[in-house]
Design brief:
The chain is mainly alpha-helical. It is built from 26 helices and 2 strands. It has a two-stranded antiparallel sheet with strand order 1-2.
């Protein structure tokens, strides 16, 4: 149960979010760009910390703590499902490509690429639809994670006496999710992007302090107790099978491994890498990550911002994840994971907090984790508003006055929140919706969004049918294949969407040549652009094509290694594996030197 000082800290944080929303309301009302993109005036490092804060979400943290507990150091590969290394691709080249367009949303970018003909309009419509479905999925994901988390600390028995209605036990998390969602709605709807960024900075500061404290508690506990784990738990490398057997240690964990479907780990990992590379090359999905990129001052700042995200997020987050995962194993018999007579391993994080975190720090940590939820929620909500207002409302009401736009911003935010709360009632658990978002929904996004960057002949019709042929199966697959891990359906989804792209492209006319020339000159992508390149060179012999493919891919390779080291270094530190820690720090230093010379120092000439 929370103590008085913890409650005061949490209330102080919630009050601070309200104040930030009120203070920045006036700036947000100045223009559409001020509301949706912070006026494109925010420093790259602030946007980077804000983006990192948005990714330090409560549902994802619960999921990752569970993975660390169950799979040990092998868990560092499972988030490649997402894929986490898409930030490296963004850092090296894709953020700059995207920012050069100078648009407000991903849907508006579609007109920049395909023009405003039939294909462009169709593509614009399907991107708006995808963006809204994606945002609603993320909002429901955060909503259910928050509710399950809060339920540990505020038992329903202590609240029900003050509530004039009764709630079935299975809906208690949804009630808590609804209550705390309202605070996120307040500052994000009033303050827009600037309100979100400043609140995120407050949240990230709290989470950094909390992460260090939890890591210290776990590090001390490792010195006083013996960590009993299965063979292979301490090894990040793996063979064909997972080969982690908890029998005789915590036998019920074996059931969790079976239900997750990760036993054939090499097949799982190969699919993660295959899908992850394709997802990363496709570029950012139309969510808060894309909006932060479009909010930067310049393409160079966009690249720096995306690089800073991994540097800020990974070590900080994994100090907390590793700390709680290791504390959960050391003191497993003290955890309360029973929910309705069934063990729920997603309760490891909240249960560990209630057991091991001292008064005062608990309030700070809970404020930070609540803030983490609200940060992700607010950023996603802002993205949904951007698509509804900029790409639907203003497209058909171009003469709307600022007050009308502001009212529409508020109204669209409220509608999105209501729909996401309703969807949250149908979500089984954090893992299930995570699998759906990253494997099914984003899986259907990949082919169309790779081709849009790299193939001149790809047109709006091809994009529309490719996206639609991905979106429909993404929604239907969970119903048709309820017992199959979504990742294993990815190859089938890839074939369907590729067919949709190719058939759609060749049944439609090529994109208008002037539009392709404008896109190619501004974006300067590498890929299959020879016919357009020739037209550009004919008009401008001084134009220099992008020849950085090999260098970009080498930098991506180095960046992925560096990012993975940033994940495993905090784990080795807490586990007191100092020899492995020193090796990883040495490798990280080498990666840092390479990226400094081959990427950072070359930003001006590349961008």
């Amino acid at each position: 149960m929370l103590q008085g000082v913890d409650i005061v800290i949490i209330l102080a944080y919630l009050l601070a979010t309200v104040i930030i929303g009120l203070v920045l309301r006036k700036k947000a009302q100045q223009s559409k760009d001020d509301y949706l993109l912070g006026g494109k005036s925010l420093p790259w490092y602030m946007l980077g910390l804000s983006n990192a804060s948005g990714m330090f979400d409560i549902s994802g943290t619960m999921w990752l703590v569970t993975l660390t507990f169950v799979y040990g150091l092998k868990s560092i590969w499972i988030p490649w499902l997402w894929p986490v290394f898409n930030q490296v691709f963004l850092m090296i080249y894709l953020s700059a490509w995207l920012r050069r367009s100078n648009v407000t949303t991903g849907a508006e970018w579609i007109f920049f690429r395909f023009g405003e003909g039939k294909g462009g309009k169709w593509s614009h419509t399907v991107v708006v639809l995808f963006a809204i479905v994606s945002c609603l999925g993320f909002l429901a994901y955060g909503f259910i994670g928050l509710g399950k988390f809060v339920e540990i600390f505020i038992p329903w028995e202590a609240v029900s006496a003050y509530i004039p209605f009764d709630i079935a036990p299975k809906f208690v998390p949804h009630f808590y999710g609804t209550v705390f969602t309202l605070f996120a709605v307040f500052y994000s709807v009033l303050g827009g992007m600037s309100g979100i960024v400043w609140t995120d900075l407050l949240q990230f500061t709290i989470m950094t302090i909390s992460s260090i404290a939890i890591a210290v508690i776990a590090w001390v506990a490792m010195g006083e107790h013996t960590l009993t784990v299965p063979e292979g738990w301490m090894d990040p490398f793996f063979g064909w099978n997972l080969d982690i057997d908890w029998t005789g240690i915590i036998s019920e964990v074996n059931e969790k491994i079976t239900s997750d479907g990760f036993s054939l780990f090499t097949i799982f990992f190969m699919l993660c890498v295959f899908k992850g590379i394709l997802s990363s090359v496709a570029g950012p999905a139309p969510n808060y990550d894309m909006q932060k990129i479009l909010s930067t001052k310049s393409p160079k700042d966009a690249a720096k911002m995306s690089g800073f995200v991994s540097l800020a997020l990974m070590p900080t987050r994994y100090l907390m994840i590793g700390g709680f995962g290791i504390l959960g194993i050391l003191f497993y018999d003290q955890l309360d994971l029973q929910r309705g007579g069934v063990i729920d391993f997603e309760q490891i994080l909240p249960s560990a907090i209630s057991q091991f975190v001292p008064v005062g720090l608990m309030g700070l940590l809970l404020a930070g984790l609540l803030a983490a939820f609200m940060s992700t929620f607010a950023g996603t909500l802002n993205a949904a508003q951007a698509y509804l207002v900029n790409d639907i409302y203003l497209r058909y009401k171009k003469d709307a006055k600022p007050k009308q736009v502001n009212r529409m911003n508020y109204a669209s935010g409220i509608v999105v929140v209501i729909v996401s709360i309703v969807l949250g009632f149908y979500v089984k658990d954090v893992n299930s919706i995570t699998q759906w978002i990253v494997s099914a929904l984003w899986g259907g996004y990949i082919v169309s969004n790779i081709l849009k960057w790299h193939w001149w002949r790809f047109n709006g019709e091809g994009y529309f049918w490719g996206m639609l042929s991905g979106l429909v199966p993404a929604i239907l697959f969970p119903l048709v294949f309820p017992e199959t891990l979504e990742l294993y359906l990815f190859p089938l989804l890839l074939i369907i969407t590729a067919l949709g792209c190719i058939i759609g492209t060749y049944t439609g006319a090529p994109t208008e040549e002037s539009k392709l020339i404008d896109f190619y000159k501004k974006t300067r992508p590498w890929g299959f652009w020879k016919p357009i390149e020739s037209k550009v060179l004919a008009k401008d012999p001084n134009f220099k094509k992008n020849t950085l493919f090999k260098k970009d891919m080498f930098n991506v390779f180095v960046g992925v290694i560096a990012q993975t080291l940033l994940v495993i270094i905090p784990l080795y530190l807490i586990l007191r594996e100092y020899y492995s820690l020193l090796i990883c720090l040495g490798l990280l230093a080498i990666c840092g030197i390479l990226l400094k010379k081959l990427w950072w120092d070359k930003l001006d000439q590349q961008l």
